[in-house]
Amino acid sequence: MTTFVLVHGAWHSGNHLEPVAEHIRSFGHEVFLPTLRGNGKNDDKSTGLEEAVTSLLKFIDKQGLSDFVLVGHSYAGMVITAVADRIPHLIRRLIYWNAFVPVNGESLNDLVPPEFLTLWKEALKPDGSVLLPYSIWRERFINDATHEMASSTYESLNSHPLKTFEDKISLSKDPSEMTIGKTYINATEDTCFPHAMNWHPRLSEKLGFFRLIQLSGSHEVCFTNPTLLAEKIILGADA
Q1: Which pLDDT band holds residue 57 (cuts at 50, 70, 90)?
Q2: What percentage of the chain exceeds 70 in pLDDT?
Q3: How many CB atoms within 10 Å of residue 43?
Q4: 149: closest CA among 160, 136, 138?
Q5: CB contact at 8 A, 14 and 35
Q6: Quick one: pLDDT at residue 195?
Q7: d(Cα 22, Cα 66) in Å, to the nearest integer?
């Protein structure tokens, strides 16, 4: 049995990954689905990256977890990288699923196309959070979904604290220097970014030595094909 900690991306909560977790559990594994600080509907939206990282560290400590596989989607790549830097002895493997891979001193905003910085300014709410416009969600994030699924999943999203995108990460070792095993899962129909700035290999190659696993699907394949994603996560964790 393997223990997995699945960490959601921006605008999501742990509950959004339950369909993926359910299928992983059907193979006899244990799965935890934390919600990062700032991503609950009623959370303080002035939350920064360090507070989100600390919330995951506290969750791991409270659950008494060790020898686990830490999986991060999208924004969570920032968080799991910082966590791995601080508690490498507790983590069996890191899995980045269409996720950001930062080096010391980088922010998420340093890793996105310039048009996203304009989008954040236009979408900024008084509480310091941002929410994707539906048109971008539909066309670029969940392009493999039906209209009904795109609409219903959009309604379930939470506004995300912008400060977590702006804050620069502090690492003692960059991901390529970490000795933990690393996997990058790449959904090949992910069109969040222009192809010239795609997730793989632009970000994945920053891991240094890693295992690449690909699957068909959009950035939100957790909604459109959770069973396939679960199987790829299990494969990515296999020794």
Answers
A1: very high
A2: 100
A3: 21
A4: 138
A5: yes
A6: 83
A7: 21
Are the beta carbons of 62 and 54 closer than 8 angstroms? no
- Find the CATH number of the domain harbouring 214: 3.40.50.1820
Residue type, 96: Y
The set of residues, in sequence order, having a beta carbon less than 8 Å from that of 36 and lying 6+ positions away, is 7, 8, 52, 55, 56, 76, 79
Instruction: For residues 6-30, give the mean pLDDT.
Output: 98
Backbone angles phi, psi at 16, to 5 degrees: -65, -20
Ordered alpha helix ranges (H), the chain:
18-25, 49-63, 76-86, 114-123, 134-136, 147-155, 163-166, 221-224, 226-237
Task: Please state, in angstroms and rounded to a whole number, the distance separating the CA atoms of residues 26 and 69.
Answer: 17
Q: Which two tokens stand for residue 88?
A: 């490498």
Sign, CA dihedral 104-183-115-54, equals: negative
Q: Residues 65, 90: contact at Cβ < 8 Å? A: yes
Residue 239 above 90 pLDDT? no
How many domains does the chain contain in total? 1
Residue 196 has pLDDT above 90, yes or no: no
Domain extent for 16: 3-237
Give the angle 11-203-239 at the CA atoms, nearest 5°.
90
HSE-CB at 132 with a 13 A cutoff on CA atoms is 24
